[in-house]
Each structure stands twice: as C-alpha cells, then as structure tokens.
Amino acid sequence: xxxxxxxxxxxxxxxxxxxxxxxxxxxxxxxxxxxxxxxxxxxxxxxxxxxxxxxxxxxxxxxxxxxxxxxxxxxxxxxxxxxxxxxxxxxxxxxxxxxxxxxxxxxxxxxxxxxxxxxxxxxxxxxxxxxxxxxxxxxxxxxxxxxxxxxxxxxxxxxxxxxxxxxx
Length: 168
Hints:
Layout: H1 2-16, H2 22-45, E1 50-52, H3 59-80, H4 86-109, E2 113-115, H5 121-140, H6 142-159
Antiparallel strand pairs: 1-2
C-alpha cells in the first residue's frame, strides 16, 4: 500500500503540482522530513502515537518512502495549488485538512495505519490543521516555523506523557 501511495502521489504531483518550484520548496522538504524523522526517533526510543503498517517493505523503507517521496509530493501539490488570496487560502487549507483526515481515516479502517497510546482521529484533525499552516509558515519564515515547531513538540510530549527528561 505504501508503494502505491507513493506512486499515486508522485503521478499526481507531476500532473497537478508545480515541480518548477522545487528549489524554493527544498528547505520545506527538509523541514517536514526532519520533523517526521525526529518523531520516529522519539517514537522508537519511547513510544509511537501512530505507526504506518509495512506490508511489502520493512519499516525503514516505509519511513524512507514517506520522507523522500510522499512528503515532497504532498508539498509540491499543496504549494502548487495554494491560492494567493487570503480567503481562498483559508478555504484551500480547510479542503486539504479534510481530505488528509479522510484519507488517513480510510487507511486506519483498512489497517494501513495504527493509532497508539491515546492518539485518535481528533488528534489527527489537530495534527493536519497545524501541519499545513506550519508548512506555509516555514516556506515564508523558516526560523519562526522551527521555533513554533518546538512549542508543538513540547505540547505533544506533555499531553502524551513522554518522560524524556527522566530516567526510566
């Protein structure tokens, strides 16, 4: 399934995305991949909140597929279709959030993703509702996005009771 998602998103990004902006978007590719890899590091060390199921590939390859194919394609599609007018941008954000939640919910029901340790569809909505604006912020003001990301990381670590500053 993960390979199919990557192929479909890659095709969609070439059809409806704007790869001519890849150099401008490259720092945002790195940002999203770094944040996801940081989550994987924390998850592997302590606990995951969600986990992608790897039916054909192993976990390492699944993480690589998402970090180096799926997420860049999402960024290219997202920014390639993001309107410049504020009202239209908000409507576009809402559409992206809804579609992302629906796709993830379908994946959850089909067993391609597991929610763990208190994560649920409401947290998924919150995550997507913060991720897309953070991508925009990172594209426009990278340092502000990185700083705010640490606030969100601290929030998640607190809410989901990670004890990273104490000995087990």
